[in-house]
Amino acid sequence: MDEMAKYCVIPGINGSPDSEYIMGTYPNAEAECMNSGGRVVERDEGCGTTTAAGLPTEGGSSVSSPMSAAIVGPIRMLRDRLPESDVLHDLEIVNYAPDMLRMLNDDAAVGGRARDTVGMVSQFALLALVDPRAETLQRSHYTEELHRWLVEFADMVLERTEDEELRDAVYRLVRAFEERVGVPIGALVDELSAGDSPTAS
Which residues lie closer than 8 Å to 156 by C-beta, 6 or more apart? Predict the structure, then answer.
């Protein structure tokens, strides 16, 4: 039996093609897609079909589909505009740790959760690039529900690695963002843009 899959389609930046990704499992996924200026569409995927946006790996290649460039593009563009900070350093440790790359390639549970996370972050990165003062960035908050969802992802990674540097970076990120529960997404972007570090205590 054919299955319907939901996608978020987000308008491209400066005339670039629209980007789209399969809807994630993170809290309020559909609402955040629409709040970010995107639209939710359903497509018949066919029985047994899976569609996954690829994830960035070292060297800029992707783990999965060619759509990955459109998905991670806003994240990379925003990253290039941000000053160095502890949180970005920890995120890069997580991104490029050999164990993390192995999990993304070999572990469907980790790969699926990572794709959902990248899709969510891409929405906010696109908004921050187009309109840093967008009402959506102020209205959308880093909620306790979202934090629990990301902690589940962190626990998945911690259970699957013995890499102490990777584990330490994950622990620091969890602690840092736990302190930001309830903060508007726009305020988090402002912190990073100012060079402030959510990992600093």
Answer: 109, 110, 113
Paired tokens of 188:
């988090």
Cα–Cα distance measured from residue 27 to residue 64, given in angstroms and rounded to the nearest whole number: 24
Question: Taking the alpha carbons of 4, 29, 75, 62 in that order, is the dihedral positive or negative?
Answer: negative
User: In whole angstroms, how far apart are CA 126 and each of 25, 49, 131, 149?
Assistant: 20, 28, 8, 22
Q: Is the pTM of this model over 0.85?
A: no
Show contacts of 160-168: CB within 8 Å, 24+ apart. 160/99, 160/103, 160/107, 160/110, 161/97, 161/99, 161/100, 161/103, 162/99, 163/97, 163/98, 163/99, 165/93, 165/97, 166/93, 166/94, 166/97, 166/99, 166/100
Q: Which helix (H) or strand (E) holds 120?
A: helix 108-130
Query: Under DSSP, is residue 40 helix (H, G, I), strand (E, B) or coil?
Result: strand
Per-residue pLDDT tens over the stretch 53-96: 334 444 444 444 434 555 576 778 888 888 888 988 999 999 88
Q: What is the chain's alpha carbon radius of gyration, rounded to the nearest angstrom?
A: 16
Interval 125-182: pLDDT, tens? 877 887 777 777 788 888 999 899 999 999 999 999 999 999 999 999 999 999 999 9
